[in-house]
Every structure is written in C-alpha cells, then in structure tokens.
Design a protein that fits this description.
alpha+beta, Beta Polymerase, domain 2, Methane Monooxygenase Hydroxylase, Chain G, domain 1, 2 domains, 9 strands, Mg2+ transporter protein, magnesium ion transmembrane transporter activity
C-alpha cells in the first residue's frame, strides 16, 4: 500500500466525525455488464439474471476468471448486493465498509489484487428531512487487472457516458481496466465544466450590473454573490481533492506496463484540465470579491446620501418652525383678556394690520434664512 496515497486511517473512532449523510431516493438496483467478448453491454436487475443470460458471468463470480476484459457496474446497490459481490470477488472488508456507509472522502488505495477508487461527481439530487437539496455522492470503483467493478448511487450518468465512449472508439482503443478507470475520472471531471461555465456567466453579469443596479436591489445582488461564492468554494474543494487522486493514479500507472503508462499520459491531460478549472474559479472568486466591494461601496454611498437628505430636510423643517414659533407669541398677546390696540375700532383695519405684520415677519425671517443658507 506504500505505492498509493493518500493512506487510509483504519481506526474506527475516525468515523465518529463523519457528517450525517442525507437519505438518497431509493431506486431499484441495476446491473450493467460490459465485456470485450460481446458487442453490447448486458443489463439486468440481479446477478442471477445476468448469470442466466450470459453463462461466463457465472464463471466470473465463482472463479474470478474471464476470457476478456470485463466491467460490472452496479447502480443503487443494496447492502445485500454489496456483501454478495464482496464475497464473490474477495473484496477487503474496509472497502466494503466504505461503500456501504458511502464514504465521502476522495482517495485511491491499493488492496492486493485491486485498487479502490473513491471519487465525487459534481451533483446529485437528494431527499432530506427539510426537502430536496443538491449534494454529491461518490462513485466507487474497484479496478482489477482483468476488469472493473463500479458502484454508483442515485441518478449517476458517468458509467453510461464511459460505455458510449468505449463504443465510439472501440475499434482503435487499447482497452484496459486502467483505461476504464481513467475514462471514469475524465468524465467526472468534465461534469464540472457546465457548473463553472454557469458561474463565470453569472459573475460577468453581476460585475456588469454594478453601475445600473437600483438601491432597492443591492441586497438581492449581495445575496446572489454570497451564494455564488459559496458554490465556487465548494467546487474548488472538490477539484482540489481530485488532484491528489489523479497524482496517485498516475504513480500507479507508471509502475506497470506500457498500456498503463499510456493511461498515465492521459491523466496528465486531466490534471491540466483540473488546474485550468481551478484557475478559472480563482478568477471568478476575485471578480466576485471585486463586485461585492463595489456593491458595498455603492450601498454605503446611497446610505450616506439618503442620510444627508434626511438631515437637510430636518434642518429646513427646524428653520421653518423657528420662524413660525415667534409669531405664536404675537397671536398669544392678541388673545389675552386685556385691552389690545384696535379693540374698539370699527372695521378690520387693525386685524388686517396685525395679520400683515405676522406674515411680513415670517417672510423676513425666511428671506434671512435663505440668505444665510439655512434653507
């Protein structure tokens, strides 16, 4: 096991910290069996059905021997299916345990006659107590010299994509179990491309919309940036984990024959692809950080401008009130129970004079306030 990394921690207490897995929508177990001895894959609901359809498969289960390269894909396996295949192919208990508990750590480990690959694809729909959410479930592959066994959960399209690729290039392809493992890794890595394209498109839209976003919409824009940055961080972590797996797989292929060495050349292309994706995500993260700073600056500017407008309005109201309050003193004097000027005069001359005085003083005060820039 010194050939491959990362190494497995076999202590049972390590599993105490594994986060609780969401409940996957249960689907019927589906078996797909590919072999170079047949033109097309076989599909069945159980190993017994496959054995009755294709007799050499029963020999493969009994002895582990087959005259050609084979690939058994098990979709949505139950624990009983995992146990029966573990007994048939002498799979290590640690590998069986990882598949049964759906270990989320991505790794590649060597176990005598086979090596075990655990890789996480982009996304899969899962049912939780709070409803349906998007998460990831690993794809597990056991790669023997003469064949491959894969276990997938949920609606995983990657094995079907690899079978289609084999069918398309079968005439000029040096098909080995290592190549099937490489093709599975390559298809999983390619599955991240649509998500990264969507992120890059969204980031460019956010950055272009900074100058035209209304103040009322800035909160929603900041919330979108938060979710986008969270998605970028998640995908970057998934891609970063795959670089260790790819390097370990490349070292394994380099230590074997020419066919595996050819697969190692393909792996360098996958690693370059992963590094390019991570660089694109890093650039998207920088753009998101810049957009977030711009939105926050605009939000601060709008808040300051609104606060200044409120202060100016309150200042005007204070000045107007200050001009009117002294007039209340005059009206108060005229309303006292004493003799006031013009009380016994006929007509409205005194009343109009007092009213004119009040309005004139208000006008004078307002003009003074306007000249002194209080209004």
């Amino acid at each position: 096991m010194g050939l491959l990394a990362p190494f497995r921690d076999n202590h049972p207490e390590r599993r105490a910290g594994v986060e609780e897995k969401a409940t996957v929508v249960e689907q019927p177990t589906r078996y797909s069996f590919f072999t170079t001895r047949l033109e097309a894959p076989l599909y069945a609901g159980s190993t017994h059905e496959l054995a009755s359809t294709y007799t050499p498969f029963e020999t493969l289960l009994d002895t582990g021997e087959h005259s050609g390269l084979w690939w058994l894909d098990v979709a949505s396996p139950a624990e009983g299916d995992i146990e029966s295949l573990s007994r048939a192919f002498d799979i290590h208990p640690l590998t069986t345990e990882d598949i049964k508990i759906r270990e989320s750590r991505e790794k590649i480990e060597l176990f005598g006659p086979y090596y075990f690959l655990s890789l996480r694809p982009p996304q899969v729909q899962m049912d939780t107590a709070s409803g349906v959410r998007t998460s990831s479930l690993n794809v597990y592959a056991l790669v023997f010299r003469g064949g491959v066994i894969t276990f997938t959960f949920g609606d995983c399209p990657h094995p079907a994509h690899v079978r289609s690729r084999i069918k398309e290039h079968r005439s000029h392809l040096a098909l080995t179990s290592d190549w099937i493992c490489y093709a599975l890794i390559d298809d999983i890595v390619d599955g991240f491309a649509p998500f990264i394209d969507r992120i890059e498109s969204g980031v460019e839209t956010m950055e272009d919309s900074v100058s035209i976003t209304r103040p009322d919409d800035i909160g929603m824009a900041l919330q979108n940036i938060y979710h986008c940055r969270k998605e970028v961080t998640r995908i970057r972590q998934l891609l970063y984990d795959k670089t260790d797996v790819i390097r370990s797989f490349a070292r394994h292929c380099d230590s074997f024959g020419a066919a595996s060495t050819q697969v190692a050349l393909y792996l360098s292309d996958i690693q370059d692809h992963v590094l390019t994706m991570m660089a694109n995500l890093a650039n998207a993260e920088q753009m998101l950080s810049r957009s977030q700073s711009k939105y926050l600056s605009q939000l601060s500017f709008d808040s300051t401008r609104m606060r200044n407008s409120i202060v100016a309005a309150l200042s005007r109201l204070t000045v107007v009130a200050s001009c009117i309050v002294p007039m209340q003193f005059i009206t108060g004097l005229m309303g006292m129970n004493v003799t006031v000027p013009g009380e016994n005069a006929n007509g409205l001359n005194w009343w109009l004079g007092i009213l004119g005085l009040i309005l004139g003083l208000i006008a004078v005060f307002l003009v003074i306030a306007k000249k002194t820039r209080f209004l």
